[in-house]
Amino acid sequence: MTSKPGPRIGIVVPCCNEEKILPLTAARLLEALGQLIREALAGPGSLIYFVDDGSSDGTWDEISRLAEQHEQIAGIKLTRNFGHQYALYAGLMEAEGDALVSLDADLQDDIGVIGDMLREFLTGKDIVYGVRDDRASDTRFKRWSAAAHYWFADKLGISTVRNHADYRLMSRAAIRLLSRYHEANLYLRGIVPLLGLPSAEVTYRRTERLAGESKYSIGKMISLSLRGITSFSIMPLRFITAMGILVFIISLILGLWALHAALFREGAVPGWASTVIPIYLLGGLQLFAIGVAGEYIGKTYMEVKRRPLYLVESRCGGSKNVPDAPG
Ligand code: UDP
Ligand code: MG
Q: In this structure, are residues 106 and 138 in contact, taking their beta carbons and an 8 Å threshold?
């Protein structure tokens, strides 16, 4: 074991209505951090940041209490609920440290591999992805929807790290580059690989949520998946164009065939179905096309407003533990 202290790290945990789980999460993280410091993988001044994403329960009180009790805990309270990706971004922008590790409050991600992440960091990697080696603890629906998302994203040419959620380590250099991305449609899993910095992966097993319920409803999951796809690819727009051309050609052929039937065959009267079905078909196709195009226009609208991605209401703890910069 070396005597040189390790890097100062920050552990960033977004929390939305996690009052039940926080004491347990804090205890486990404090223990893990203590171990990392003993192994010289983390240095003194390392902090655990809980970001309260507009919780409606006693989450902030719990965070304040924990910050008062433990000097290694700090809290950041956002003004309202911004959503997981934004709360995480807020934490990454506000936290101090040479390396930041992000993870969920429910500790479904094995905190035992933070040490492995730091070892990779110490060999010069700027980004270390935590990758799940199995999803046995996820519900069947969650596994199925994740598989569908990755399949679709792959087909659309979006590069994401498979089975990697937002459990990752980022160096200060990576955070600095990340801060230059201001997109309103934030999808960190898509942006981080775009930074292009040296990266590594560590694998772990994802476990059940310790307590409380998943804050990711079906609606939120679909919205995250759509954001991931539409923020990184304009393929759906091209797909619509291609489909339009295809339908046009098919209807042209059908028209010629109908003309042929009317001129050269007897009794070939086009019936009700051949009139009405194309109307429904094209109507549906057009609505779909307008919807997808609208999705992009809406995205552009959100981006041009350049609203702040998060707003901090207050902070607690931490500061007394931050060593003064030498000189
Ligand atoms: N979360 C958040 N804001 C939200 C929803 C979730 O900060 O609007 C946090 C939540 O407290 C947790 C993490 O994001 O720490 C992941 O949420 P959850 O565990 O509910 O998602 P799942 O693991 O089911 O995908
Ligand atoms: Mg979870």
A: no
**By the 8 A CB rule, do 316 and 64 touch?**
yes
215 lines ligand 1 (CB under 6 A): yes
| Portion of the chain with pLDDT greater than 90, in percent | 50
- Residue, of 161 and 201, whose pLDDT is higher: 201
Judged on CB neighbours under 10 Å (0-12, 13-18, 19+), 141 is: exposed
Predicted pLDDT of residue 321:
46
Pairwise pLDDT comparison (232 vs 23), residue with the higher score: 23
Determine whether the shortest distance from the Cβ of 201 to ligand 1 is under 6 A.
no
* Cα atoms in the 13 Å half-sphere on the side-chain side of 183: 17
Distance of CA 200 to the CA centre of its chain: 18
Query: To which residue do tokens 């707003």 refer?
Result: 311
pTM of the model: 0.83
Rounded CA separation 295/3 (Å): 55
> Which residue, by CA, sits nearest to atom 19 of ligand 1?
214
Q: Using the structure block, give the residue that is written with the tokens 């700090």.
A: 74
